[in-house]
Structure formats: structure tokens, C-alpha cells
């Protein structure tokens, strides 16, 4: 990542994030724990995720420009998110990153950066709510 100004640049900018997001949500839609949390029409979710990741990784503030302050924890509160959900989400992202040609060190960096927010969204430990 040393030759890049931001993680956004290192992953290939918006096009790189679009590719990662596509594969990620393909994984999510197949995941028995995660799929029920998402709408059947996943396209708007993919678009929001890509825009959020753009600014999260140092690119244009596309999400904030369109939707305002991300307030991601608050936006996720209506959904029961357990530690198992966070782990599953991170695993889907790990698998999506593994399908890219990004260096392993960069893949791990991206995953590490996303681990904090994924765990921050946990709002219940009650597996029965899922």
C-alpha cells in the first residue's frame, strides 16, 4: 500500500470497490445467517455499501453526499446483529477479497479495518432473535 495515498486508491478506487461489493453480496445472499437480513432487491444495498466504503477508505464522500451522516450503528439497530452475524459478514468480505488480485497484505488490512465496525454493529447476543 506504500505507493498509494489512500486505501481507496490501493483497492482500485470506485471500480475496485464495485467489484468487491458485487462478490461480497453474492456471498451474503448465499449465507444462511445473513441472507434473511437483506431485501430481495439487493441492488440499492450494494450501491449504498460501495458509496460508504468509498469514503471509509479515503475516497470521495459519496455516501454522505447522498444520504447524510452515515450513523451506521443507528442504521443497523432495527436488525438483530449477533457476534455470529459479525463473523459471518467478515467471512463473506474475506472471501470476496480473496477473489481479487489485491496483494494478501492489502486484503488483510482491509479486513482488519472493517472488523471494528462489524463488531460495533453487534446489538444482541441472543441467537434466538435471528
TrEMBL record:
Pfam family, one: Bac_globin
Annotated InterPro entries: GlbO/GLB3-like, Globin-like_sf, Globin/Proto, Hemoglobin_trunc
Keywords: Heme, Iron, Metal-binding, Transport
Entries under Gene3D superfamilies matching the protein: Globins
Keyword Heme tagged: yes
Coiled-coil spans in chain: none
SUPFAM superfamilies membership: Globin-like (SSF46458)
Transmembrane segments: none
Family, as annotated: Belongs to the truncated hemoglobin family. Group II subfamily.
PANTHER family for the chain: TWO-ON-TWO HEMOGLOBIN-3
Name this polypeptide is given: Globin
Species per Swiss-Prot/TrEMBL record: Paenibacillus spongiae
Amino acid at each position: 500500500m506504500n505507493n498509494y495515498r489512500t486505501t481507496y486508491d490501493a483497492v482500485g478506487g470506485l471500480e475496485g470497490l464495485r467489484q468487491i461489493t458485487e462478490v461480497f453480496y453474492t456471498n451474503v445472499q448465499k449465507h444462511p445467517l445473513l441472507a434473511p437480513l437483506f431485501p430481495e432487491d439487493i441492488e440499492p444495498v450494494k450501491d449504498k455499501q460501495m458509496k460508504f466504503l468509498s469514503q471509509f477508505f479515503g475516497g470521495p464522500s459519496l455516501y454522505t453526499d447522498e444520504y447524510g451522516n452515515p450513523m451506521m450503528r443507528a442504521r443497523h439497530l432495527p436488525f438483530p446483529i449477533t457476534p455470529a452475524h459479525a463473523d459471518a459478514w467478515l467471512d463473506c468480505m474475506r472471501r470476496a477479497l480473496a477473489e481479487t488480485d489485491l496483494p494478501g497484505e492489502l486484503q488483510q488490512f482491509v479486513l482488519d479495518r472493517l472488523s471494528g465496525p462489524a463488531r460495533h454493529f453487534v446489538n444482541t447476543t441472543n441467537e434466538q432473535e435471528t
